[in-house]
Specification:
Layout (H helix, E strand, L loop, with lengths): L1 E2 H17 L1 H7 L9 H18 L5 H15 L2 H17 L5 E2 L1 H18 L8 H14 L7 H22 L1 H6 L4 H19 L35 E9 L7 H11 E8 L3 E8 L2 H8 L3 E10 H4 L6 H6 L13 E9 L2 H9 L4 E4 L8 H9 L3 E7 L6 H7 L7 E4 L5 H9 L7 H13 L2 E7 L4 E3 L2 E3 L4 E5 L2 E6 L4 H12 L6 E6 L5 H15 L4 E6 L7 E5 L1
Parallel strand pairs: 7-8, 7-9, 9-10, 16-17
Antiparallel strand pairs: 1-2, 3-5, 3-6, 4-5, 11-14, 11-18, 12-13, 14-15, 16-18
Helix pairs in contact: 1-3, 1-4, 1-10, 2-3, 2-10, 3-4, 3-5, 4-5, 5-6, 6-7, 6-8, 7-8, 7-10, 8-10, 11-12, 16-17, 18-19, 20-21
Length: 556
């Protein structure tokens, strides 16, 4: 029999085991687009239980399971985290009221969790964490018998789960093409194995007090490039929230789930007597929240743009090496209109400054400034009306959050999505007309620009039927992959991309080269482009010094 103390130690061991391998699991995450966060989500989910368990001194298996399930439900992140929390909620239900658990108790509890997980997913897919959990449970049940110790039963669970994990590439072709097993399934196996170490050997997997960060992790620097592959995401916003249930509300949470399935996908609804935990992918997160309010009050809300969530902070390593500048000093709003732009690279900062921006916030692709940083730059701009140009679609929301935080001047956010859009918007500004008129004119100018980018792939991947290998040079137009070049001929990709973007109506092409390109290389590219396009199109070369992208191309 397993008492509450042993179960507590086992779960903590499982949590430590998956946390130690978080990066490995993240790197496996390739579906539907490489967002690389499964290991992080699972670690943070079970980590929330770990913290509560460490504070607990109960010896009851049922109470330990309850504490675990309750904490994980509240701390669940992402699909994998929610499913993991549901699996452990099965433990809570199956071990309720039990001081100690037999092998049969463990399997019955796990079976409840597996059944709940399958029911919670709108369209269960085999070859995922669900398959691993189910086959692990089946293997454990087959091992039951008179006198069989719980440790032996759990060993069978681990064996069945690992066997299922190795089969996941056969069930999901995308895994087979990528040469990986399912990331969520791998995380679950690690948790089960960490628990087994305690149940069978009495040895808990220990937390890594000082984990060594591999230098190779900086290879993630350019992983964002493949992040532009957003056309397969139909519902943009990953919406997660917890509803504190109204005691007077008699509505069935199944009603909420049915509604959510009508406005999105990947719907997970888990509930207990006190709360409802919800996960949904939707284009209308506000509608989801409004529907949830019928069941009680919102306790927590988390909304991520999935098309951007996998973007890593690729410049983190550079940021560590450079001393973070002090925030700009606030200035009195004496002038009429001022501008704040977001850009990375000394050349780009100079461009925006020369065009009239009072402040340029350091950031952009993969290095997104905080709302606080944007507010500080707004307050440092000596104008009664401050226009903010995010110049990246992943920064627009942060910029918009700054608006209500500034009370002594008006803040207007122009939703520019790229550096070329921001530059074109600034060029269109006319001080003699009103802010409202300028806002329209500047956005019209921004919308008339096509943006091309040249970068490279950080790892092997596949998208849209295209096999992408690590270090392939990629050309993207307005965020969509157009060119994959394995020769690593950066100049060739840039020239091809410009020719692809240019049309009979094109008048201007601006080529902005980054910190990975020499002036000589950039001049050579410019000369080739001029030769290909002819004299009717004006081609300008600018040193941007930006990270991540070898070239940023503006076509107007």
């Amino acid at each position: 029999m397993i008492n509450g103390t042993d179960l507590k130690t086992a779960i903590i061991s499982g949590a430590n085991n998956v946390m130690k391998h978080r990066t490995e699991i993240d790197d496996m995450n390739i579906f539907p687009v490489p967002d690389g966060d499964t290991g992080t989500n699972m670690s943070m989910t079970i980590g929330s239980a770990l913290r509560e368990l460490e504070k607990s001194d109960t010896s009851s298996a049922g109470e330990t399971a309850h504490i675990t399930a309750s904490a994980m439900l509240r701390g669940a992140r992402g699909n994998s985290g929610v499913i993991l929390s549901i699996l452990f909620r099965g433990f809570s239900k199956g071990l309720e009221g039990k001081e100690a658990a037999s092998g049969e108790d463990l399997i019955n509890a796990l079976a409840i969790g597996v059944d709940g997980a399958y029911k919670a997913v709108m369209k269960p897919t085999e070859g995922t964490i669900l398959t691993v959990a189910r086959m692990g449970c089946e293997a454990g049940r087959n091992a039951l018998g008179d006198g069989v110790e719980p440790a032996a039963v759990w060993e069978a669970v681990c064996g069945g789960a690992e066997k299922a994990l190795q089969q996941t590439p056969e069930l999901l072709p995308v895994l087979k093409r990528a040469g990986v097993v399912d990331a969520g399934g791998k995380g679950l196996c690690l948790i089960f194995e960490g628990m087994l170490s305690v149940l069978r050997d009495g040895v808990a997997v220990q937390e890594e007090k000082s984990p060594e960060k591999k230098e190779t992790e900086t290879e993630d620097f350019f992983r964002n490039a493949a992040a532009e592959f957003d056309q397969e995401i139909h519902f943009a916003y990953c919406t997660e929230f917890i509803v504190g249930r109204d005691a007077d509300c008699k509505k069935d949470p199944a009603e909420l789930r049915a509604y959510l399935e009508g406005i999105g996908d990947c719907v997970l609804v888990a509930d207990d007597d006190e709360i409802i935990k919800v996960h949904v992918h939707t284009n209308n997160p506000g509608n989801a929240l409004q529907a949830a309010l019928a069941f009680g009050q919102l306790l927590t809300v988390k909304i991520d743009n999935m098309k951007e969530q996998h973007r890593k902070n690729a410049e983190a390593e550079q940021a560590k090496k450079a001393e973070k500048p002090a925030p700009p000093e606030p200035a009195e709003p004496t002038g009429d209109v001022g501008f704040v732009a977001v850009a990375a690279g000394p050349g780009l900062k100079t461009l925006f400054t020369d065009l009239g921006c009072a402040q340029v916030v350091s950031g952009g692709q993969t290095m997104n400034p905080s709302t606080q940083e944007i507010v500080a730059s707004v307050l440092a701009t000596p104008a009664k009306t401050v226009v903010v140009l995010p110049n990246n679609k992943n920064i627009i929301l942060a910029a918009e959050q700054a608006v209500p935080l500034v009370t002594d001047r008006k803040v207007v956010v122009l939703p520019t999505r790229t550096i070329p859009e921001g530059l074109s918007a600034m060029l269109a500004y006319k001080p003699e007309i009103s802010v409202e008129e300028n806002t329209v004119a500047m956005m019209e100018a921004a919308s008339s620009v096509n943006t091309g980018t040249v970068t490279y792939a950080a790892r092997d991947s596949e998208f849209g039927g295209r096999r992408i290998r690590k270090n392939d040079i990629m050309g993207l137009v307005n965020g969509k992959l157009e060119i994959v070049e394995r020769s690593r001929d950066i100049s060739r990709v840039c020239v091809r991309l410009v020719r692809m973007m240019a049309s009979r109506t094109t008048s201007f092409v601006t080529i902005i080269y980054g910190d990975g390109v020499s002036e000589k290389e950039a001049n050579n590219v410019t000369n080739q482009v001029k030769a290909k396009l002819g004299s009717d199109i004006e081609v300008t070369l600018v040193c941007g010094g930006q990270p991540v992208y070898y070239y940023i191309i503006s076509v107007e």
